[in-house]
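Archive transcription. Copying these from loose printouts into the bound notebook so they stop getting lost. Printout 1 of 2:
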Amino acid sequence: IAELYQRQQVAIAELDRARAARDQASAATRSAEAQLRELTNGTRPEQLEQAAAALEAARGNLAQLQVGREHLSLRAPRAGLVDALPFKVGDQPPAGAELVSLLVGEQPYARVFIPASIRAQVSVGDVMRVFVEGVEQPFQARVRSIRSEAAFTPYYALTGDDASRLMYRAELVLQGEAARQLPAGLPLRAERGDARP
């Protein structure tokens, strides 16, 4: 092509393109020859050491990232259903705050409030009937726990007739297979097992 350029039969751009193609082909040939020599002669010991060091560094980085992930991951202490998430994404909960409320165990429970007027008549282990909104048949339940402090208003703030308005939070464990199928959060009411309200 150089001769054609000398005779002014091709433009300088054509000559430049031809030279660039020649140089590129020459570089590719040299690279292929170097790869052939490396494959023929084998890998150098220092290259193996460099590769081994890079592998160890990558393993160290992986271990560090796994530890970081463990510090940022939350795991429930046991299997269950999420009942409530008190915080939203982006919130900064205070130290020791409850992040997730879980419903655990196989037996569902009802959270009810016992009026002060009948609190002395209800004990842990008593049988109750629970009427769930939208379900015809009542469920049998046992009183699992009763709070010793009144809910809603502190006991020391009420005197005389006001004391009858106190309510005590209790948990009733529902019995039976049908109770396990109930979704969380349904409205309900409870009665004493002996049919006295």
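Printout 2 of 2:
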Amino acid sequence: MNSKRRLYYPIKSEGLHYSVKGPTRLEFITRYPVLKKKKQSHSFQYLIILNGKDTVDVNHRYKVQKTIESVQHPKHKYTYSGNYFINLEKGVHTLELLKSNESKYPVLIRVNSKEFESLGKGNIVLTPMVHQSAVKLISNNKEVQYYECTSELPLQVKANGRKTLRIMNRLEFSDSMGQEESYRLRVREGVKIVGTYYFNTERSSASEIDGRADKVPGKWRSCEISVPNGKHVYSVEVADKGKAVLTRFILY
């Protein structure tokens, strides 16, 4: 793989089991094996079970990457990697990765853990290229501007690298939602999916959305994107229909 070797584990019928100490950000990097004669894109799936109760159904579809090979399986090629992210709060968490019945072959996976970084100095707050009016969120008597994002109304931001783009976000809770909810943000650059980020949050008792008495913001969550050298445009969308997320973009 461009002279680099990576160790992947197959998700078989018995699954893979992990115990992880938070707070941390987990990155699930997956590829799907296909026969060399197959050249079109392929879909593959797997399941993540958090702490024995929350089930995340991960779906990817990628083309075959010609430069990837395996010494152990010379008859196979492999897709481009699918990246999925989950933030874990403080404490010990259990993870179970299970095979999906929809996938013919075992999905190959490796898992990275990364600590949260402090922002430090020299931060730049980015404004989306096209957006509706900013939403004011009031927390501890302070006003902070967020931008609403949905599956139908994605947001685009320009970012110059080499930097890190942090996406601060809060789910908008409606009256019909429970005390806790999960949601996903999907980030693209052009047609390429940079990553899909999974969050679980609860209603915030210390914040409110100005002018929206029927909505309650969730506690804030965040994800980070490594921005390479040069100019980039990222599109951010909510991967769950019917949910709205307030977002704020910080480049550092």
